[in-house]
Design brief:
Distance between the termini: 9 Å
Shape: globular
Strand order of the largest sheet: 2-3-1-4-8
Number of strands: 8
Structural class: alpha/beta
Bound molecules: adenosine-5'-diphosphate, zinc ion
Strand content: 5-15%
Radius of gyration: 16 Å
CATH superfamily: P-loop containing nucleotide triphosphate hydrolases
């Protein structure tokens, strides 16, 4: 299964991708996670990306395309993959097509999660991520353990700097200007499947799974 999860910040892409990894045994490729790892490691690429990420802007296409190109060549992507947060611009989608063509592959499906702006803001302000294992939580909708720590590993939870209200607004604008055109892009290719992402986490998961079964 070669899948793209599309949707604005906070739509539930990471949450759904992590559940699909368990179910399908194929890797989640999150450009956001990979960029945050590069920032943490203070690699030259991470240092360049940091400024864009802090302001809620997109990192340049050639940087993310380079990361994804390398990642898709790894062995664990042979049986399929879940792209989470990539592509985010039309040039990225074009580049993805080229990279997959070089590898003799193409996408099976693009699932788009549709969520109202107010709900997105509430999801992002309440989002917490385990600093140790990376698992995602929500203070209200998917609460961590009673001690306020990760339910999976007991690690400390972090609130991303870009999940503060000012930056969230920027990221929403960026989504509408640069990423939303991909809905039409993939609709024209006959790949787009839109889902009501306002449903609760397990209902969304069930719907994605039934879409993938029909592909
Ligand atoms: P979210 O899960 O809230 O949508 P991500 O973790 O995917 O956010 O991304 C965090 C930040 O990393 C983005 O705001 C952007 O700066 C950068 N980023 C992630 N993926 C891409 C991409 N495909 N193209 C450009 N920038 C990206
Ligand atoms: P994205 O990767 O699209 O930015 P996430 O998967 O990180 O989004 O979800 C954003 C926040 O919303 C997280 O705190 C997550 O626990 C929560 N969340 C995800 N899906 C739902 C849902 N269907 N209903 C309520 N909260 C959700
Ligand atoms: Zn953890």
């Amino acid at each position: 299964m070669k899948l793209v999860l599309l949707g604005p910040p906070g739509a539930g892409k990471g949450t759904q991708a992590a559940m699909l990894v368990e179910k399908l045994g194929i890797p989640q490729i999150s450009t956001g996670d990979m960029l945050r790892a590069a920032v943490k490691a203070q690699s030259p690429m991470g240092m360049k990306a940091k400024e864009c990420m802090d302001s809620g802007a997109l990192v340049p296409d050639e940087v993310v395309v380079g990361i994804v190109r390398e990642r898709l060549q790894e062995n664990d992507c042979q049986a399929g993959f879940i792209l989470d947060g990539f592509p985010r611009t039309v040039p990225q989608a074009d580049a993805l097509k080229d990279v997959l063509a070089e590898l003799g592959k193409d996408l099976d499906s693009v699932v788009s999660l549709e969520v109202d702006t107010d709900a997105l803001v509430e999801r992002l302000t309440g989002r917490r991520t385990c600093g140790a294992c990376g698992k995602g939580f929500h203070l209200k909708f998917d609460p961590p353990g009673v001690d306020g720590k990760c339910r999976a590993c007991g690690g400390e939870l972090v609130h991303r700097d870009d999940d503060k209200e000012v930056t969230i607004r920027n990221r929403m604008d960026v989504y509408h200007q640069q990423t939303a055109p991909l809905e039409d892009y993939y609709r024209k290719e006959g790949l787009l499947q839109a889902i009501d992402g306002m449903q609760e986490i397990f209902a969304v998961q069930q719907q994605i799974v039934s879409i993938l079964q029909a592909v």
